[in-house]
Design goal:
By secondary structure, this protein is α/β, with parallel strands linked by helices. It folds into four domains: 143 residues, 3-Layer(aba) Sandwich (Rossmann fold), CATH 3.40.50.2300; 164 residues, Rossmann fold (3-Layer(aba) Sandwich); 79 residues, Helicase, Ruva Protein, domain 3 (Orthogonal Bundle), CATH 1.10.8; 44 residues, Arc Repressor Mutant, subunit A (Orthogonal Bundle). 44% of the residues lie in helices and 12% in strands. Helix 2 links the parallel strand 1 and strand 2. Helix 14 crosses helix 16, helix 17 crosses helix 18 and helix 18 packs across helix 19.
């Protein structure tokens, strides 16, 4: 029966629109809390079921579909953490919000570690609950939509391997879905190592051209004279060493897709040729007066700020406007640390396949170190780190000593720590050696909030979304750290 819940997508439709209501399971041993909170949530349009103990809550989950569980922490017998672990093990798509009358940073950290979406303290404020529920359900729908899009990608010939639950990655999935079947030129931007080549391949694999060739050209890897010949071909005698005719990459991509990586490195002369081939899909090979026509879809990428390059006079303005039709911007890994556990799992599966390594996963401490790192090399660097760890690890779990030396003395993990709990672990190891957990978390939490506010231009809603918390929780933390004047 647990599998039935896992297959159901979350619903959050207002009453009267023909869709099932969002179903919430409310768990608390205090009947007054159940009645008051249940009535409030029902007035907001939710279908609420109440349970007074963990055992009853599990029976409800096995008997029916629920989108969200709101549970008290302290209850007789089994507590809210035990229910949280059970839900995450059997119904991973169900979102859990925890409530307690004894709120501490220690218990909040532990709740987030074990997979709770949010943590509220009694007496519960109506607006806090309302915001927490709405944000949790939005996140749940986003995850379900990402899963649907990745399945659609795989079903239409894509790899389905682009991984991410961050809201910015959701936008990437939506753009891939929208542009795949069109002939539109696509510009992919983002730092080195964020996966621009993979996105280009995914667009091609899901397009009507997927049976045609996919040709990738690293524009920054060749000098101009060779790059022009590589792209457009040459005829015999065009230059010293041209002993025979050669078809270029554009000709090789006829009927398919050509991916031009690091387009910003092209010289002004080549930029003129790019503009023509983008507009007319025709070109002349080096040393030839014969014009050749090609049917090719063009995808370009760069880690440079092309708008700034135009302003500096290094990139043609007309070419910039021609290629910047659809821009897919990939976020750096440091801006989506919540995706690191997903990426680690994927890379572990990739590098353990076909080996006899006894590795079953990664320790919470090692994962926390990964999440606390700035990742200048982005996803590519993370993949290299995991490949190295698989080679070196001789235990069942990858630990800190299996990671590169930079992680041995790494900064404290960024709050919240999104690592899954280790089997049988208590979670205390994530901050081992700290004399006071509250003090150990205060400074990194404050810095993370300041960075999110700066990145969002002071927009609290966007900052809260980036941090993975609700706006009310962000407001409280800003008040605690005196950030309203920033």
């Amino acid at each position: 029966m647990a599998g039935e819940n896992r297959e159901q997508p979350p619903q959050n439709a207002p009453p009267g629109q023909g869709q099932p209501k969002t179903r919430i399971l409310l768990v608390d041993d205090d009947q007054i809390v159940l009645d008051s909170l249940g009535s409030f949530l029902r007035l907001d349009g939710y279908d609420v079921t109440a349970a007074t103990a963990v055992a009853g809550a599990i029976d409800c989950l096995q008997a029916s579909r629920y989108d969200l569980v709101i549970t008290d922490v302290s209850m007789p017998g089994a507590d809210g953490f035990e229910l949280l672990r059970h839900v995450k093990a059997h119904w991973p798509d169900v979102v859990v919000i925890m409530i307690t009358g004894y709120g501490t940073i220690e218990s909040a950290v532990e709740a987030i570690k074990q997979g709770a979406y949010d943590y509220l303290t009694k007496p519960v404020i109506d607006d806090d609950v309302r915001q927490a529920v709405r944000r949790a359900l939005q996140q749940q729908q986003l995850v379900a939509e990402n899963r649907r899009l990745r399945a659609a990608m795989a079903g239409r010939g894509g790899s389905g391997l682009i991984i991410g639950q961050h809201y910015r990655m959701a936008k990437v999935f939506e753009l891939i879905e929208a542009v795949a079947d069109s002939p539109t030129t696509v510009l992919i931007t983002g730092e080195s190592g964020t996966g621009k080549s993979m996105i280009a391949r995914e667009i091609h694999a899901r397009s009507a051209r997927r049976e045609g060739p996919f040709v990738e050209v690293a524009c920054g890897a060749l000098p101009d004279t060779l790059l022009e010949s590589e792209l457009f071909g040459h005829v015999r005698g065009a230059y010293t060493g041209a002993v025979a005719d050669k078809a270029g990459k554009f000709a090789a991509a006829d009927g398919g897709t050509i991916f031009l990586d690091e387009i910003a490195t092209a010289s002004p002369q080549l930029q003129v040729k790019f503009l023509r081939v983008l507009q007319d899909r025709c070109f002349e090979p080096v040393g030839s007066n014969e014009t050749r026509q090609v049917d090719v879809r063009v995808i370009l990428a760069t880690h440079h700020d092309l708008a700034a390059e135009v302003q500096a006079g290094h990139f043609r303005k007309d070419l910039y406007y021609r290629i910047n039709v659809v821009n897919i911007e990939l976020p750096p890994l440091r801006d989506r640390i919540g995706d690191i556990p997903l990426l680690v799992d994927a890379f572990l599966l990739k590098y353990l396949e076909g080996t006899d390594r006894p590795i079953e996963g990664i320790t919470r401490e090692a994962l926390a170190r990964l999440q606390g790192y700035t990742w200048p090399g982005n996803v590519r660097e993370l993949e290299n780190v995991i490949e190295r760890a698989v080679v070196l690890c001789r235990k069942s779990l990858i630990d800190v000593d299996d990671l590169p030396p930079v992680f041995a003395t790494g900064a404290p993990p960024i709050f919240p720590i999104l690592a899954p709990p280790e089997a049988g672990g208590s979670g205390a190891g994530a901050v081992a050696g700290a004399k006071n957990l509250r003090q150990a978390l205060k400074e990194p939490e404050k810095k993370l909030i300041e960075a999110a506010l700066a990145a969002s231009g002071g927009n609290r809603q966007a900052a809260a979304r980036q941090l993975g918390i609700n706006r009310v929780t962000l407001y409280k933390k800003m008040k605690r750290y005196g950030l309203f004047s920033r």
